[in-house]
Design goal:
- Belongs to the NCBP1 family.
- With about 800 residues, the protein is an all-alpha fold.
- The protein is globular.
């Protein structure tokens, strides 16, 4: 094909020329996009000469491709914040050559800023404001107009009846831009800047910080304080001001072009008023700055900047930006992190590991899917085999040492990461270094962590492999062999009530009996809940469930697939046995009793029970909090099951809501079409009326389904919170009566699991806050439990 095209070019025919002309602008546009996006990456030429060359190319293309160039530059300002100063320099050079283009770019950026705020894209809005502020250094924007914009932002703190998270964001966007532009603004407008910082300081002193304990990875302030993000940034900016705004880490390519840029005419920003608060605005949640290392942890090489130095903020911010830009491609992301500019001046590996764990442990949820961080760390270890694995091992050791004060949700994530990581490196680890956990109570954080890690490793491997890799001294922490417990197959089981029927059921299943035949066999099972002289009746019969489910699970115990097939085949029997709430609860008890040494099987089969509607979500919640589960209450898999159940419920509601919205949209389109075609024939009108009638009926049915599903969802949360309150209240009363300290390992775990429910499902729970406050979290509740609810409320206030 390429040969034919080559010969066509020399041909006098007009067709090839036409085709080339239509594709040429697209090729040039693609080339421009590629040139702009790749500037600042590794190159044989210097960054300065690349920028000068690119500015020349873009200037030449401005007459024909101005709107495309504007669009690309606005996009990179928003989407590639790690190369911010590279692009501000490029815009500065273009502005020096073409003043009108500079003005159009500033207007386009302001338009884009308004759109991002309107769309709740607050992270991208931070990058846009930071970009605009750095344009002051490039002599594109006049300093006084930038100060005026900052003053408008800070004035939001004076607004009344707004959530604190709104004012927090506007203060953050100003403070986080100052490392880039503070020096320039102070030189031009020192009085106004002092007034601005005083206003911010006043706001920071009066703002509420009830939410902080809920968001901290560690409760202990030593060795590193876990500071609220605005307090930490304020301390960093204060130190920067004290150092006369001298910052040594931001790459500033525009300095090389100072003689050109200082001749350029500057633009004033149009007056920018922050959009008014609306109820559908979703502001970013506050967070706590994750700290794991300081200069003492990186003994060789460059010194790590202090936690209150602005360099620490800039480095971390840039690393977060790189992850945000490239997280979908782990290889690219790892390579970009390791080629970070200025890497020779800092202990880069320590910064990277701290930032990755900071994101993984971020509460309520990490910015990206958990498994991405595992994949990224594995990739980094491959690229830096001589240094990064050692830093990672050091970090793991530190986290192990601090498990006593670590948030339970973060311990869950640490377990998942560590077990997955080990599975990629032949499960090699210096287990003997953690032998201190063997002398502790098995419910203490360290032995519990090791036990849960080994259990997760077993899911990614098999039992004998785990036995082989772990020292014999750790035998108490090695998970039990994942075997089932079939009560009717044990010695002396012949005396058990229901044994004869269990044998009959087993033979019937082997002989491919139908659901109806099995139900007939089960009629012979005596009901332990009824007296002999009572009529048989169709009430709840726990023994019926035990006989059938134990036998069915035993025959299908070979694999997940066998179990799934068995449940599908006898779905009708299972539905008949669980037609009441007690039946649903009891089927879960029987499942647990049968597979208690195989938590993964329990998780998978509970999931299957919910999907096939054998049990409902509320039954699973009641089972998790039941006395039979008390022994496993603090185990990882139990909470995995509960959160999975809540997510299923939430997805169910969303699915029906989506169907309802689509039906309403369809009806609206139908009515609009009818109005437009009102002059057409009568039979068409009749058809359209029939369709409308059907749609209205469908909407009515869906409306009922949505209300029913939301009621079920609300009930699920009520059940969960009610059971939490009962358990915690019992514990608090018991401790008070006995004069014992309430802060046991169990209490820490339970109260943090309550926090976890609030945090992981905060969007849904906020819809039902009125009900929760009226029914459960009332003023009479013990203040230890109520404090968790108040912390949650403070997150969005």
């Amino acid at each position: 094909m390429s040969r034919r095209r080559h010969s066509d070019e020399g041909d006098a025919g007009s067709q090839p020329h036409k085709r080339r002309r239509t594709s040429e602008p697209i090729e040039i546009e693609d080339r421009l996009e590629s040139l702009i996006c790749r500037v600042g990456e590794k190159s044989t030429s210097s960054l300065e000469s690349n920028l000068e060359g690119l500015a020349g190319v873009l200037e030449a293309d401005l007459p024909n491709y101005k709107s495309k160039i504007l669009r690309i530059l606005c996009a990179v300002a928003r989407l590639l914040p790690e190369k911010l100063t590279v692009y501000t320099t490029l815009v500065g050079l273009l502005n020096a050559r073409n003043y009108n283009f500079g003005g159009e770019f500033v207007e386009a950026m302001i338009r884009q800023l308004k759109e991002t705020l309107k769309s709740n894209l607050y992270t991208e809005a931070v990058y846009l404001v930071r970009f605009l502020s750095d344009l002051v250094n490039c002599h594109v924007i006049a300093a006084p107009s930038m100060v005026a914009m900052f003053e408008n932002f800070v004035s939001v703190t004076q607004e009344e009846d707004i959530p604190q998270v709104r004012s927090d964001w506007y203060v953050y966007v100003v403070l986080s831009s100052l490392p880039w532009v503070g020096k320039e603004l102070y030189e031009k407008k020192d009085v106004e800047m002092d007034r601005l910082l005083n206003q911010i300081e006043g706001y920071l002193k009066r703002r509420q910080k009830i939410h902080v304990p809920m968001l901290q990875v560690w409760t202990a302030e030593k060795p590193h304080p876990q500071e609220e993000y605005l307090d930490c940034l304020w301390a960093q900016v204060q130190k920067l001001k004290k150092d006369r705004w001298q910052e040594r880490h931001i790459l500033r390519p525009y300095i090389a072009f100072d003689s050109v840029l200082c001749e350029a005419l500057q633009h004033n920003l149009p007056p920018f008023t922050p959009p008014a608060h609306s109820d559908d605005a979703v502001y970013p949640m506050p967070h706590v700055v994750f700290r794991m290392f300081d200069y003492t942890d990186a003994p060789e090489g460059p010194v790590m900047p202090g936690s209150h130095s602005v360099e620490r903020f800039v480095i971390e911010e840039n690393l977060h930006c790189i992850i945000k830009s490239h997280w979908r491609e782990r290889k690219t992301c790892a390579a970009q992190l390791l080629s970070y500019p200025g890497k020779n001046k800092i202990p880069l590996n320590y910064h990277i590991v701290e930032v990755i764990f900071g994101e993984l442990f971020q509460l309520p949820v990490p910015p990206h899917i958990d498994v991405m961080y595992t994949a990224l760390l594995i990739e980094l270890c491959k690229l830096q085999p001589g240094s990064l694995p050692q830093v990672l091992a050091q970090a793991t050791e530190m986290m192990y040492m601090r498990l006593d004060t670590m948030n339970t949700t973060c311990i869950d994530r640490l377990i998942s990461w560590f077990s997955h990581h080990l599975s990629n490196f032949q499960f090699r680890w210096s287990w003997d270094d953690w032998a201190d956990c063997l002398t502790q109570d098995l419910e203490k954080p360290k032995p519990k962590f090791v036990k849960e890690v080994l259990e997760k490793c077993m899911r990614l491997s098999y039992h004998q492999r785990i036995v082989d890799i772990v020292p014999a001294s750790f035998s108490a922490l090695i998970p039990a062999e994942p075997l089932c417990f079939y009560k009717y197959g044990e010695e002396n089981s012949t005396s058990l009530p229901g044994f004869p029927v269990a044998t009959t059921v087993s033979n019937a299943i082997k002989n491919r009996a139908s659901n109806e035949e099995i139900l007939i066999v089960l009629k012979d099972v005596p009901n332990p809940n009824q007296d002999d002289d009572d009529d048989e009746g169709d009430g709840f019969n726990p023994l019926k469930i035990e006989v059938f489910l134990q036998t069915l699970l035993h025959l299908a115990a070979k694999s997940f697939s066998h179990s799934f097939s068995a449940l599908a085949k006898f779905h009708e029997v299972l539905k008949a046995l669980t037609d009441c709430d007690e039946g649903k609860l009891h089927i879960l008890r029987v499942l647990y009793e049968f597979w208690k040494n195989h938590p993964e099987m329990i998780s998978v089969l509970v999931d299957k029970f919910i999907r096939t509607q054998i049990v409902d979500c509320a039954a699973v919640a009641n089972w998790v909090f039941s006395p039979e589960m008390a022994h496993d209450f603090t185990r990882f898999y139990v909470w995995e099951i509960l959160h999975s159940t809540i997510r299923k419920m939430n997805k169910h509601v969303q699915k029906i809501q989506k169907e309802l919205d689509e039906a309403k949209e369809k009806l609206e389109k139908q009515q609009n079409k009818k109005q437009r075609d009102s002059g057409d024939e009568e039979d068409m009108e009749k058809n359209s009326e029939d369709e409308e009638g059907q749609l209205e009926e469908q909407i009515e049915r869906l409306q009922e389904k949505v209300e029913s599903a939301q009621s079920e969802q609300k009930n699920l949360f009520l059940v969960i919170f009610q059971r939490f309150i009962m358990l915690l209240t019992e514990h608090l009363v018991r401790c008070e009566t006995s004069g014992v300290d309430i802060n046991t390992t169990w209490y820490k775990n339970c109260i943090e699991r309550l926090q976890q429910i609030f945090l992981m499902h905060h969007v849904i729970i906020q819809q039902y806050m009125g009900t929760l406050e009226n029914l459960l979290f009332t003023a009479e509740l013990d203040h230890h439990i109520l404090a968790v609810y108040q912390q949650f409320c403070a997150l969005q206030l």
